[in-house]
Amino acid sequence: MNNTVISVHNLVKKFGSFTANDNLSFEVYAGEIFGFLGANGAGKTTTIRILSGLSIPTSGEVNVAGFDAYSQTEQIKKNIGYMCQKFSLYEDLTVKENIILYGGIYGMSKSLIRERLIELLAKLRFQEYENRMISDLPPGLRQKLAFSVAVLHEPKIVFLDEPTGGVDPITRRQFWESIYETASRGITVFVTTHYMDEAEYCDRISIMNDGKIVALDTPERLKKQYNATSVEEVFIKIARPDT
Amino acid sequence: MLKAVESSGISKKFGPTIALDNISFSVNESEIFGFIGPDGAGKTTLFRIITTLLLPDEGEMSVLGMDSTTDYKELRKNIGYMPGRFSLYQDLSVEENLNFFATVFGTTVEENYELISDIYSHIEPFKKRLAGKLSGGMKQKLALSCALIHKPRLLILDEPTTGVDAVSRSEFWDMLGKLRKYNITIIVSTPYMDEAIRCDRVALIQNGEILSIDTPQNIKAGFSRKLFTVKSAEKYKLIKTLRKNPEILTAYPFGDSIHVTLNNNTLDNSLYEYLVREGIGDAVIMEAEAGIEDRFLELMEKDNGITNKA
Fold it and tell me: What range defines the domain where residue B238 resides?
């Protein structure tokens, strides 16, 4: 059956008197593309920080890649990858240097890093860029490389925070194809985005509002349930139920 | 029709990088005109030239009937500009920012309050809060209020909706729509194709060149082939399988389906039978109407000779 890689039960996270995550419960499975949606300030970043071992829950049970979010945060960090649009690679290092640096941070052996480097450059048809600075790469190539680096150590889960903002439509599609390919290898892809057409690519999506998960299902079933033609419409109905 | 902006042959280089390559377009008075294209397409460079902040290497630009390179002092009084990066004073309050911009332009908040009342009323309850402490959606509303407070004839908005959630985005476009009654010309850029429909006319821009300028409806109608959507539970396998078929001209993932065009432009049973033979028994194939993004992809392919065949 479905192999659970993230399980969250009654997660609460408070900052003083403010409840950022209010009793969340959900599961994410191996090889799934899971869209994590919500308005600005709904509490998504708080949850992602907990799931990546950067923040400890106030209460509730949270298990990521088989590790406990209270006591095993270092093991969690080793088993996940992370990429966001704003920062992922060091601009004043070359392609090769970035790969070696990240491989080292992930604790990979030198020989494994070398092997992955060659593999990756070939796969991305990147050989000619090996010794180019990241700042010299066009945004599309940079993004592809950032994603490959985020999964360099074959993590169980990769978190993508607004990954495709601002890229051209062809690059964006190539990016989604690499997401599909990664998921088909069994790596779970956990995506946040403000762009609801992106949500349509996901296997399942959750929508957060005021610290709570108010909807969680496949895009198809949510559209049926809310009698909507797009996820955007579902989102607006949930976030502004009175309009 | 009166033109708010008329540009011909605008080029701009930064060192070896060609940011704008012979750009010509015109914007009618009181229309909402969108520049749609990815990061690095040249949108911000173009906006900086329109707003007189940057000189072009070549070409001519007339804005509100004035020359953007020589009449810049007069022009600046008539332009409202909201840059892509949040550029208000973070350590001033909401109210102080608004007063500051009004004063710089020699007016008062009271004088033009009507123009911003719809937008500003959302953030007025927080007027004592520092601008740096506002949420993304509230910052955006304050920045728009500050860009409007001197009642400009031309409003330039550089990616106002980037990083903003779907609800706030939709509200933002509603606000722009309401500004129509004040006869303000609005030029807006966005990397998101789905926002094109909110504009009267759009220019698709890529690598410093304009690919197409028209109404959103005409741009969609410009799609030259029949478009089909193919759905299956196994999306990744479906794309790979479609790409292997020589009858397929293009296959691109689009949300929950794959958008496909065919070499002979006609759909018969053979595609469905092919997918079944390849082990995809649940495929649903339908003819669909092309969107702005489909047309953008088509123009990019023509422009670059790109093909997505395996």
Answer: 227-289
